[in-house]
Write a structure and sequence with these properties.
The chain has helices at residues 2-27, 53-75, 86-105, 111-126, 129-136, 140-159. The protein has 169 residues and is mostly helical. The protein has a single domain (2-163), classed as Glycerol uptake facilitator protein (Up-down Bundle).
């Protein structure tokens, strides 16, 4: 987990360094989490103004559960999973989840993908607002994807794995 958070932090750092001048041009050096010149959402997920914590939590659980269901289906050889091409299918699945579940609150679907960049933005000028925005939203993309992954695994086991024919002894 630490390696994933560190990798996401490093990726956010690289993005910031690459586009530092563009950020300065856009926001005049005043890093904002919300409003017309907000740029923190480039790095981490934030809910739309109409999305509450409960609705966002459900959104993140469902998105991650769908990801896990898809990954299990793609990689399960007993379910005619692909011998090759699995990573491309998983990348496509992530893209589809992003397109269909990204509007309400982004699509963290991995706690490290949100937390590492959020830590970076807190240290790089956006400050503590990255943890206060969205009524303290920061914990939702950490907790909800963990629960969603468990739900997705349970549902796959319940609906698919338990219905495989018994292996011959």
């Amino acid at each position: 987990m630490a390696a994933q958070v560190a990798g996401a932090f490093a990726g956010a750092t690289l993005t910031y360094v690459t586009y530092r001048e563009a950020f300065a041009h856009f926001d005049g050096g005043a890093r904002a989490v919300s409003g017309a010149t907000a740029t923190a959402g480039i790095f981490a997920t934030y809910p739309q103004p109409y999305v509450g914590l409960a609705g966002g939590f459900v959104d993140q659980v469902v998105g991650t559960a769908l990801l896990m269901l898809g990954i299990f289906a793609i990689s399960d050889r007993r379910n005619a999973g692909p011998a090759a091409g699995g990573p491309v299918l998983v990348a496509g699945l992530v893209a589809v989840i992003g397109m269909s579940f990204g509007h309400n609150a982004g699509y963290a679907i991995n706690p490290a993908r949100d937390f590492g960049p959020r830590l970076f933005t807190a240290l790089a000028g956006w400050g503590g607002d990255v943890f206060r925005a969205g009524n303290g939203w920061w914990w939702v993309p950490i907790v909800a994807p963990c629960l969603g992954a468990i739900v997705g695994g349970f549902v796959y086991d319940l609906l698919i794995t338990r219905h495989y024919p018994k292996a011959a002894a």
